[in-house]
Amino acid sequence: MDKIKIVVDSGNSVDLDEAEKLNIGVIPFKIHFGDETFTDQVDLTSKEFFKKLKKTDKKVTTSIPGVGEFIEILEGYIKEGYNKILCFAISPKLSGMYNMMNLAKDHIDNPNVEIDIINTKIASIPLYFVAKNAAIKAKNNEDYETIYKKALEEIERVNILARVDTLDYLVKGGRLPKPIAQVASFVNFSPIFTMDGGEIKIAKKTIGKKKSFKEFVKLIKDMAKEEKDYILAIAGGESQKEIKDLKKELREEIEKAKIFKEFTVPPVFGVHLGPGSLLCSVLSFES
Q1: Could you tell me the pTM of the whole model?
Q2: Could you give the CA distance from residue 236 to residue 47 in angstroms, rounded to a whole number?
Q3: CA-CA distance, 271 to 274, in Å (whole number)?
Q4: Positive/negative CA dihedral, 205, 209, 210, 216
Q5: Strands 231-236, 278-283: parallel, antiparallel or unpaired by DSSP?
Q6: PROSITE patterns from the entry (predicted)?
Q7: Which residues lie below 8 Å from residue 223, measured CB to CB, with a gap of 6+?
Q8: Which domains does the chain have, with CATH numbers?
Q9: 142-165 pLDDT, tens per residue?
Q10: CB neighbours of 111 closer than 8 A, spacing ≥ 6?
């Protein structure tokens, strides 16, 4: 019988306690505040990250583990008896994690071990449900090919909407040219973002923060209306008031959802979106 290990990076929204219960391996990003470095979720939680991000005037960046470090992790899983390893990486348009995982995989020369790296083309809350489903199936000794195929099917059906209270972090992260952001700020441009083809793109152009919030809510409601059974998930940075207001506006959709779950935005995504960010996913697959 195959022994299956599910692996994610910390751009997935699973926390370490739940990951341990589900037997999910988590590969953490490094978070850099100037010359100060933290390991994501190990010595800096997502909530701590946003509190620090809100106050800092230092350049904030993220980085991936080295190839050698991930090779050691894979070899450790193999020594534990795992012969099927399924890895979920956030979009390579956001980080080098996917490419690094593939480089490490190519160094594993073991004909008895199968390692697959999935480019999920997205990040954060939808990946939590995809990886969790795969992990539960693995714990229930389901066939690896079935788990792999189902994960690919679910990834094609994921979605995410994002709203920010400032475009500054998208500029700092290189996701938005500074001249465009300056013009946008002048006219109070407050767009709603999505991810398409692995990239952060504008889903809806709006002027003004109040209008942006209303349109954000409307888009979520419209997505929920299209599904008979759905999972509703939201996430915020250092944005407790906005989360409270969002839950109030979505109270009917939350009641109708077969699963409702609230997260904190992962730091690797939050670096680009900022402390005032809001995320939402409406998912129609089983969980």
Answers
A1: 0.92
A2: 9
A3: 6
A4: positive
A5: antiparallel
A6: DEGV
A7: 159, 230, 282
A8: 4-29+64-155 (3.40.50.10170), 161-283 (3.30.1180.10)
A9: 999 999 999 999 999 999 999 998
A10: none
